[in-house]
Amino acid sequence: MAGATTVEDVTVIVTESLSKRYPRVTALDRLSVDIAPGVTGLVGANGAGKSTLIKILLGLAPASEGSARVLGLDVAKDGSAIRERVGYMPEHDCLPPDVSATEFVVHMARMSGLPPTAARERTADTLRHVGLYEERYRPIGGYSTGMKQRVKLAQALVHDPQLVFLDEPTNGLDPAGRDEMLGLIRRVHTDFGISVLVTSHLLGELERTCDHVVVIDGGKLLRSSATDEFTQVTASLAVEVTDTEAHPDGTEALRAALAAAGVAVTTGAQGTGGLPSSGHLLFVEAAGEQTYDLVRDTVAGLGLGLIRMEQRRHQIAEVFRDADRAQATATPAGAPGAPYATQEGGAHDVA
Asked: CB-hemisphere CA count at 13 Å for 99?
């Protein structure tokens, strides 16, 4: 979908001391961040400033101070040129119920400047890409929430943008629909070279989908890092074993044996951040290569089957939990924090 217009090896978004103030609230507070091509996640609680930032980057709302550039264009002067090159998927349901997906996406393509024939061709291609080709002539009012989200994604892509802003694209979706949407978002970049800025309050979504994560709270930048830096390898092993007749609870038998050997071991139920099969995992502190040998020999000595033994990675939510614990020791009681949701839907405070 994106050919010669694809952004390569440049910074697609730059903000410098960007602020947006309203009479009673500061939505953005001296935000400075650089965003490179790829899939970037913008995470923050409701009210953190995510939607305000997108409006400013689209040239739809003026900043109170500071500056921002999108694809090298000044948001204060080049709003129309930015919107020609950028697609936008809004958070809220804003689709007309009495027209079909084809009619709506063709209309949005024409509004973006495509001639009639090109608009129809690109609409068919885009609806096929998002999985709505068979349903394209049905009125949108009869669509499920997931189908409506796909229509919004299609209209953001139809004019072949260099960059798309996706505001909470998984809102209202069930787990299966969320997974499908995250897959589509990833393919927008991998298949077509379009850079993506996606907002979410679910940390797990960004970990699975994004190359880079930007965290804001109260309009301020908390952290901007590659996802790999958030989820760096830890100095522990994730070990999973089978049960046997001799050891009906193989996990507990291995834990007890390793503990008796002086190895620090925790069970998967303690802060795994939702790892698959986490209730049957042991996390073993790795002192070196000898730890691998010890675990292997202990498993064999107990007659258990070894399902996996691998270095585990932090999940993004765990990184923030660690930061919270450190902050809690230095912050007076009652100091405000912003609730962030983990993938499992629980609240998580990021100070």
From this structure: 12
The sign of the torsion formed by the CA atoms of 318, 323, 326, 329 equals negative
* Residues contacting 110, CB < 8 A, separation 6+: 116, 119
Strands in 212-300 per DSSP E? 212-217, 220-226, 233-241, 265-267, 281-285
List 217's β-bridge partners, or say none.
220
Contact between 314 and 230 (Cβ < 8 Å): yes
Nearest to 87 by CA among 62, 102, 69, 70: 70
Residues in contact with 139: Cβ distance below 8 Å, sequence separation at least 6, in sequence order: 97, 98, 99, 100
Q: With contact defined as beta carbons under 8 Å apart, do 194 and 157 qualify? A: yes
Closest CA to 196 of 50, 3, 42: 42
pLDDT at position 222, please? 86
The secondary structure of residue 202, as a DSSP letter, is: B
- CB contact set of 281 (below 8 Å; sequence gap of 6+): 238, 239, 240, 251, 267, 268, 272, 275
**How many Cα neighbours within 13 Å face the side chain of 284?**
32
Confidence of residue 140 (pLDDT cuts 50, 70, 90): very high
Q: How confident is the model at residue 118 (pLDDT cuts 50, 70, 90)?
A: very high
What was the pLDDT predicted at 107?
97
- State the pLDDT at residue 302: 94
pTM above 0.85, yes or no: no
User: Do residues 56 and 18 make contact, with C-beta atoms less than 8 angstroms apart?
Assistant: yes
Cα–Cα distance, 305 to 327 (Å, whole number): 42
Question: 316 or 144: whose pLDDT is higher?
Answer: 144
| pLDDT of 279 higher than 60 | no
DSSP state of 10: S
Which token pair is 232? 């760096």
**Gap between the Cα atoms of 129 and 121, Å rounded:** 13
